[in-house]
């Protein structure tokens, strides 16, 4: 079977016009017609019915079934092209969220440098949600991701490294600072300063709010973690963050409060790649090094 025939067929289903498909691929209309006929011979059934009386191009049920598979094949071929092209470059296309990159990844840098892998990395830095989509689309091949719950994606290979708790971060000047722990319901009227939706933190904030039946005001959102902690230090609001963001050097001006509400949400860290993607020897070595990543103990 000619993959170009499938491409013509897929476009015909979407455009329902032979002339438009021919123009799209810069070929003659008979070329498209012959491609459809070859496919119909291959599957021994009519795929496209031209209703000349009403000037309509109709797709039969067999054609609709083939279209679904053709879309999957097109996606797989596109991924194969990307993966093979990247293999020629000997790069490791790696996704790294800013928080994980700041908090945990530096501890691996020495090992990666020693193994000759650090200089091979082509790093894409963005929030975990965007990186998850990029892995699926074949734009990157390996990522360290954060998720609210352990990842279970049928299209992905997932190796969970561990998890860290979320906490409420307040200024030492705040009345709650000496409590040590807090029920989320107590925070109904507190002003929150939050990471934006490129991060998983807003999902956690929503889960705790819904569980407690409250709707605390979010007065400011930003992708800048340092800016959040600076504003909280000034007692302009409080925040919900993964525990490790507050360094020991900041504990004299910031307090981390344990959240008492019994929700399963954690800052789960996992190594992710596409199922079926064949790792190069260097990528296998890199994943092995990533699995040595140690998260702090609570």
Automatic annotation (TrEMBL):
Q: Which InterPro entries does the annotation name?
A: HTH-type_LysR_regulators (IPR050950), LysR_HTH_N (IPR000847), LysR_subst-bd (IPR005119), WH-like_DNA-bd_sf (IPR036388), WH_DNA-bd_sf (IPR036390)
Q: Does the keyword GTP-binding apply?
A: no
**Domain HTH lysR-type, residue spans:** 1-60
Q: Which GO terms describe its molecular function?
A: DNA binding; DNA-binding transcription factor activity
Q: Which Pfam families match?
A: HTH_1, LysR_substrate
Mind telling me which GO cellular component terms the entry cites?
cytosol
Asked if DNA-binding is a keyword of the record, the answer is: yes
Please give the PANTHER family that the UniProt record associates with this protein: HTH-TYPE TRANSCRIPTIONAL REGULATOR YBHD (PTHR30419), NITROGEN ASSIMILATION TRANSCRIPTIONAL ACTIVATOR-RELATED (PTHR30419:SF8)
Q: Under what name is this protein listed? A: LysR family transcriptional regulator
Starting at the broadest rank, the lineage of the source organism is: Bacteria, Bacillati, Bacillota, Bacilli, Lactobacillales
